[in-house]
Design a protein that fits this description.
Length: about 375
Amino acid sequence: MNFIDVNVGCLTLGKGRPVVVQSMTNTSTQDVGATVAQIERLMKVGCEMVRVTVPSLREIDTLSEIRSRVPAELPIVADVHYLPEVALRCAEIVEKVRINPGNYVDRPADVYSDSTTGKIAERLNPLVEVCKKNGTALRIGVNQGSLSARLKAANPNVKDALVASSMEFINVCQTLDFNQIVLSIKSSDVRTMVEATTALYDEMCKNGTVYPLHLGVTEAGNGEDGRILSAVGLGSLLLKGLGNTIRVSLTEKPENEVPVARAILQACGLRNFTTRFVACPSCGRTQYNIEEVFDKIKKRFSDYPDIKIAVMGCVVNGPGEMGDADYGYIGGANGVVNLYHKGTLVKANIPENQALDELAELITNYELRITNQQRWL
Ligand code: SF4
C-alpha cells in the first residue's frame, strides 16, 4: 500500500503523523486586521492550520497581506468555491487550496453532466501546474450539495456518489502526476459522512494509493449538540485510524472549535494536549464531595500531558477501577485521602485539606525524577 505524505507548509499530513487541528476564520478576508487578529487568537488556543475564505479575486491582495503577517509555522488554506481563476492565484500565496470538484466541470446548471476525466484534467491542469511549482497542496472537498446529476444517476446511493466523485478527482490528479492532495467528504448527516469517508478510504486501499483525509461534520450547530455531533462523527473515524486533519465546525466563534477538536483527539488517544483525567461517577459509597475535588484537581494539575490522574470515590473499588492511571486520589471515610502512584498506595490517611498539596508534591517528585532520568539516558 502506498500511503502518501502531503506537505502543507511546515506540516506533513500522512500515516503515522499527528492529526492536525484546523479551524476557519469567519471575518471578512478583505479586513486584514480583523482576520489576522482572529488567526492570532486561534493560534493561542492551539490551532495548527487555518482556513480562510477567498470568494473572489478582490480578496487576493488581502490574502497575500494576511499570509505575510501570520507566522509561517501556521499554514493557511484558501477556501475557494466558485472560481478556478481564484484558486490559481491562491495557490501562489498560501500552502493549501481547497477546491470543490464542481468548479472544474461543466457549470453552472448541470454540474458534472457529460464531463469526462479528460475534460476535468484539462480544466484542473493549470491549477496543478501552479501547485507543483509552488509546493502547494490541494484539498478536494466533495460536497453532497453539489453532486452532479450524472454521478447521482450512476450512483443512486449518496454515499456511492460521494465516493465516485472523490475517486474521479483522484484519477484526474494521478493522470496529471500530482499527489499532494487531501480528500474530504462533506455532509451535514453524520452517518453519511462517516460511511462515505470509510468507503472512500476502502476504495483508495483497493486502488493501492491512500491520500490523507480531512474530517469535519458540517452544519453541526452549537453548544452541546454541535460538540456531540462532531465527537461522534470525527471520533468514529479517528478510532478506525482515518483522518489526518480535523475541524470541529461550530456556530460559535472559531476559537471555541479548537479546544473541542483537541479534546476529541485526546479522547481517541491520538494526541495528548493536557493531563488525562479519569474519575468515577461516585455512588452511595462516596463519602466526600468528589465533584468539587475533581474540579479543583483538574484546574490545578492540567498541564501534564504525559500523565493520567484518577479521582475515585471510595477505597472499596477505587484502587481496582482506576486502571492504568499514573496517580490516584482516593477519598475515604472520615475526611482522609489515600494517594497512589502506578497502582501502589504511597500516602495513606492524609487529611483532606492537605491532600492536594501532597498530590502536587508526589507528582513533582516523580515527574522530576523521570525528567532527570531521561536527561541522563
Ligand atoms: S469507585 Fe467507589 S465510589 Fe466510585 S463508583 Fe465505584 S464503588 Fe462508587
